[in-house]
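#struct-help
A.M.: can someone run this one for me? Single chain, 314 residues.
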Amino acid sequence: MDELSEGKKPFFFLVNFLMDEIRVFTEKDIRNKVLLIDFQNVINVNYQHDDVADFSWKTFPETLEDYRKGFEIVQENLRKGNSYLTNYTTRTEIETNLRLEDIFRFSKAKYKVLVPDEFVFFSPETFVEIIDNKIFTHPMKGTIDAEIPDAENILKNNPKEKAEHYTVVDLLRNDLSMVADQVQVKEFQRIDYIKTKQKNLLAMSSEIEGEIKPEFKNKIGTILQKLLPAGSILGAPKSKTLEIILKAEQFDRGFYTGIAGYFDGENLDSCVMIRFIEKENDKLFFKSGGGITHQSDLISEYEEMKNKIYVPIY
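D.P.: on it. Structure tokens below:
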């Protein structure tokens, strides 16, 4: 990736959560539709954003008791001070008459990718952007049902959600400082509206920016190696929290919560691979979760995990 970016050659990439599988796609691969991409600055499909007729959608989340097992491992480590924010996720079997291709075509999201017969994601969350030697990140942490009265104020002032958001902003500000100078928070606790057929949500985001340090200029691979895994879907401190996640979660995240991105020869746009559906042995699984702090309670976190099992098709 460094070689391509230093040579100003465009490419697309996928990096899995543990950073032990990285796929790099050339312009030829993109033209040949080895994977389907719909980003703001690269798209290799020609389709109308049609509405889809009513579709079937059933979810089979793990039981509260099963969820509790991993949740308690996380909480025990939080009490011991091994972590102060852990992003705990699960996988849920889903049944739908939509194919992965249909979900890619009809869903509405800032970032969409289909890896045929493997997975699809429709992510609202930017990881990092690099524009004219400036780096930007947009951590998204904290969601609420948009139909709740006064939902925006409740989300912004909920002690648990607030603590979680502050923690991730602080973590990513520190992360960017490894590769950039003059790092600052430019926008704090912005509220975005996410519309879906199942449930409308409000999500809380912030924006952080800095100037790429001279030694990292045009080295996309080296920059990502420094910044990954993404703090918003891992927690803090990173290395210990990763150990907790690997112990608590009962499945392999794979490419879920990894990152995808496109370098156009000058600038980079990348996203966190959340809102993710994977095909395994002809079954579909939706992977979702949320940040756990010492203020988290079991029922609320279980409900948040289930709330995120949706497709933005309406």
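A.M.: thanks! The CA atoms of residues 51 and 109 lie 14 Å apart.
D.P.: also worth noting: The mean pLDDT is 92.
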